[in-house]
Amino acid sequence: MIQLSNVEKYFEHGPTKTFVLRRVNIEVKEGEFVSIMGPSGAGKSTLLHVIGMHDSAWTGEYQFLDYPIHRLRKKDRDEIYKKYFGFVFQSYHLLDSLTVYENLEIPLSYRNFKKSERDAIVCDVLDRFQIVGKKDLFPNQLSGGQQQLVAVARAIIANPKVILADEPTGNLHSTQAREIMEVFKSLNQSGVTIIQVTHSETNATYGNRIIQIADGWIAGA
Description:
The protein has a single domain (2-220), classed as P-loop containing nucleotide triphosphate hydrolases (Rossmann fold), CATH 3.40.50.300. The protein contains seven helices and ten strands. It has helices spanning 44-51, 74-84, 100-109, 115-128, 144-156, 174-189, 201-204, and strands spanning 2-13, 16-28, 33-37, 59-64, 67-68, 85-88, 162-166, 193-197, 209-214, 217-220. The protein has a six-stranded mixed beta sheet with strand order 6-7-8-3-9-10, sandwiched between helices. It has a four-stranded antiparallel beta sheet with strand order 2-1-4-5. Strand 1 and strand 2 form a beta hairpin. The model has no long low-confidence stretch (mean pLDDT 93).
């Protein structure tokens, strides 16, 4: 489903290059639940953002399904992302000017749902995550944990084929974290491919494979 071949990312400082990713070769099959682990600064989040098509400043080849991502224009990559991916950002990335309800509705607007269908789906997800009482609040009126719950809900609401999660439980207490990981486990069992960046050994046990990365190099997969 996802295949990266010799992917590299670096920053240039005059004549020198500082590499963030080095000769990355990985394959993720449809239906896998993969955890990317490694020390801080190893390149974990960068790798996730390359896979999620938020970062296009890299070299190498990236094949997603039948799409050669490395050859596509940004507009085409954006369309593929909206159609197939959900992303849980480490820093939430909720839109401050929109309510919780409106933040959740956005991914559905990309996929041609009727207004009545969008309303029904949003209400169902609000109930599932027990945030019905927060639907008319803005992100700055929520705690960090509540914003993270909304971010996770937004990532899964349109039933993406792939969920990418960057430290998805980093701002949650242990009970909430377990609930989120159980949601991911259930989604994975229904066929959704999940790739998470995590420092948590507990979170990693929910997956079926760990990719270790160190200093931008894949150390084990």
